[in-house]
Amino acid sequence: MATAGAPRRFCRCACFCSENLYVARYGLHVRFRDEQQLRQDYGPLEQEVERRRLLGPESAARKALIASSYHPARPELYKSLQDAALAPEFLAATEYSTSPGAGLEGLLQRLETVSEEKRIYRLPVFTAPFCQALLEELEHFEQSDMPKGRPNTMNNYGVLLHELGLDEPLVTPLRERFLQPLTALLYPDCGGGWLDSHRAFVVKYALGQDRELGCHYDNAELTLNVALGKTFTGGALYFGGLFQAPSALAEPLEVEHMVGQGVLHRGSQLHGARPLGTGERWNLVVWLRASAVRNRLCPMCCRKPDLVDDEGFGDGFTREEPTTVDVCALT
């Protein structure tokens, strides 16, 4: 498994500014080769390319301003994650996964297998009081005059948790202490035992705002999607095959959201969200990354990554292999 050590500089792949550019008009992700090709096929997209180039510095500036000026509604959330915030079933699954002799068969008895074929699993993650507290904090921040970054190119409403200051107290211990023991057993071939970075954000769906999410795959080895609330109808997740499969969405699998429960799946699994019917839906999404895997092949351009230094965890790439990783075990 990944071990703690000296801080490493994380990077992104240069393809971030040329591959998988989202064109909302068509609901498609496209590749940028040159301006002539782009204009001919889809119209001007220079604004999106430039937005991506400036994303790191602008995000760092927002984070610094929020840290100096924002007054949280629930300051207790900014302290280290406590076991009391986590569902008993989640704690039990983690405890089993770290016990001597733990194996996949035993872990599967402690969570729900949504699809054995697609390797999609679900289990309670957070308690109801914690979900409520986190929602109160997110709404308080949403109503503040603080600057806000978009969660990603497809979602216009939500919060980037590293900008809000919740990465270190909440998401990092969630990944290191609780998720990695599970993913090491569930996804050993996807870097589940070598997770060393993440990107976490909350997405919001509501009438008059974002209502659905088009089919896509994640820039992550693994993804955790936890429904936080509120009251809503519709908006189910749907899953196809892996993005490399030509008929990946022939028979999509639909998965309903359950507040407090998390869905675990491979980042390469094609998925999306059906239209919201009524109410508001807030979900915490954590893209889990393993540099031991992505340093060899960028999941977005499917090539050896062309590394560019970035802020924070970047896109999870590093310029060196973790010294404790036997990469042969991942092939």
UniProtKB/TrEMBL annotation:
Pfam families associated with the record: OGFOD2-like
Domain Fe2OG dioxygenase: 196-290
GO molecular function, one term: iron ion binding
Listed cofactors: L-ascorbate
Alphabetical keyword list: Dioxygenase, Iron, Metal-binding, Oxidoreductase, Vitamin C
Highest rank taxon of the organism: Eukaryota
The name this protein goes by in its record: 2-oxoglutarate and iron dependent oxygenase domain containing 2
Species whose genome carries this gene: Equus caballus (Horse)
Gene: OGFOD2
